[in-house]
Amino acid sequence: MTINNTFLRFRSLILASLFSVSISANVAAQVNDLKPFAVGFYNLENLFDTKNDTLIDDDEFLPTGKKAWTQEKYKEKIANMAAVISQLGKELCPEGLSILAVSEIENESVLLDLVEHPLLIKRNYGVVHVDSKDKRGIDVAFIYDKDHFIPESTKAYLVDIKDGDTTSTRYTRDVFLLSGTLDGEQIHLTANHWPSHSGGEKRGAKNRNKAAAINRAILDSLLVEDPKAKLIVLGDMNDDPNNDSLTKHLRSKKKAKKVESTDIYNPMHALFDKGLGTTAYRDSWSLFDQILLSPAFLDKKGEGIYFHKAVIYNKKYLLQNKGKYKGYPLRTFNGDVYQGGYSDHLPVYVYLLKEDAN
User: Fold this and answer.
1) 47 φ, ψ (degrees, to nearest 5)
2) In angstroms, what CA-CA distances link 20 with 42, 92, 329?
3) Which of 37, 43, 80, 38 is nearest to 289 (CA)?
4) What is the CATH number of the domain that holds 102?
5) What Å distances lie between residue 88 and 38, 85, 95, CA to CA?
6) Among residues 109, 173, 270, 301, which one has the fewest Cβ atoms lying within 10 Å of its Cβ?
7) Is residue 236 within 8 Å of 192, Cβ to Cβ?
8) Least confident of 10-24, 168-182, 330-344
9) How many domains is the chain partitioned into structurally?
10) 3-class DSSP state for residue 233?
């Protein structure tokens, strides 16, 4: 990538930031006397370091690998991810995100490099991570604002998947449960990266249904203990909101008024119905990156935090502006050709509101 391209890209980011600031006052006026929080998800697309880890298959992302993954490219990837994350949620929350679930990160070290970048260091972000058994070594994790959220407990749920019709089993990314308090109120969150479509749709669907069922079991368990338990399911589901994994196995509903006491609300479904998406393939958008909320978040009359709206962050600087893939998310690589982009997925987030006691 040339210096000129780098300048143009960050010029676009600055303009996007200024535009965000200009509309913040108007948006904020809609929630006067309420305290807003933003909780999001972002697939960081292969955020690997440059060191060889003999326990995983990271050869592709080494200086000697086919992508010639150098320290210079790694630092630019960190800078790009930090630039995007620094802008998320700022329409209502000047301080940005309170919690961000992420996927496709190699280890805790890359997360620490991310939150310590100059664009994020003042946010006072902490990280919560656990190594999964995924053969490539990519994990899900959380970044959180220490001034807003206090972690209390974590639990990683293994997702075992079958290879074809054989009896062999391997593991993919965990369903990672984090519990804690957001502004003093207990909430639970799961970070997800469900099995992909590789190897055939039928097999892939079965494996994604299993990941959905794990989230369903977590929610059921929480609701038994507390019918007003607040759970947020975040992740790259590798399925759209209307697929069986979401609607049947997780029992999601797209309309808030249709949500029963044991269902889960999917505000992304309405965005999907409008033709919006987070990742593109063969000139078609999919909305794989989703955030779902348990019924207690829909109670605007009760005490505590409640759901306001869902957002896909689809600013122009995150998209290809020319060529065969014009309009697609601007990736770090096009095949093995480095183009210094961001991710093949767009980030998503939800706004939560709470009556301001001050």
Assistant:
1) -85, 85
2) 19, 10, 20
3) 43
4) 3.60.10.10
5) 8, 5, 9
6) 301
7) yes
8) 10-24
9) 1
10) strand
> What are the angstrom distances between the C-alpha of 243 and each of 174, 269, 286?
21, 10, 11
CA distance 338 to 358: 50
Q: Is 246 left (phi over 0), alpha (psi -120 to 50) or beta?
A: alpha
Report phi then psi at 143, rounded to 5: -115, 135
Distance of CA 143 to the CA centre of its chain: 10
H or E element: which one contains 140? strand 139-145
Residue 35 burial class via C-beta count within 10 angstroms: exposed 0-12, middle 13-18, buried 19 and up: middle
Residue-wise pLDDT for 264-290, tens only, equals: 999 999 999 999 999 999 989 999 999
Angle of helix 108-115 relative to helix 71-85, nearest 10 degrees?
Answer: 60
Sheet holding 125-129, edge to edge: 125-129, 139-145, 99-105, 34-47, 348-355, 306-312
* H-type alpha helices, the chain: 3-28, 71-85, 108-115, 201-225, 244, 268-273
pLDDT in tens, 20-37: 444 444 455 456 789 999
Q: Comparing 100-104, 202-206, 258-262, which segment has the lowest mean pLDDT? A: 202-206
In the block, tokens 């902490």 appear at 126
Distances (CA, A) of 306 to 6, 265, 281, 358: 40, 12, 34, 18
Alpha-carbon 91 to chain mean position: 18
Q: Residue with structure tokens 């109120």?
A: 185
The amino acid occupying position 165 is: D
Rounded Cα distance, 159 and 129, in Å: 16
Residue 1: band (very low, low, confident or very high) from pLDDT cuts 50, 70, 90: very low
Quick check: helix, strand or coil at residue 65? coil
CB 194 within 8 A of CB 245: yes
User: Which conformational region is residue 79 in: left (phi greater than 0), alpha (psi within -120 to 50 degrees), or beta?
Assistant: alpha
Measured from the Cβ of residue 32, the count of other Cβ atoms closer than 10 Å reads 7
User: 124-143: b or e for each residue (b if 16 or more CB lie within 10 Å)?
Assistant: ebbbbbeebbbebbbbbbbb
**Tokens of residue 138, six digits:** 């990519």
CA dihedral 309, 312, 313, 315 (to 10 degrees): -120
Containing structural domain, residue 246: 3-355
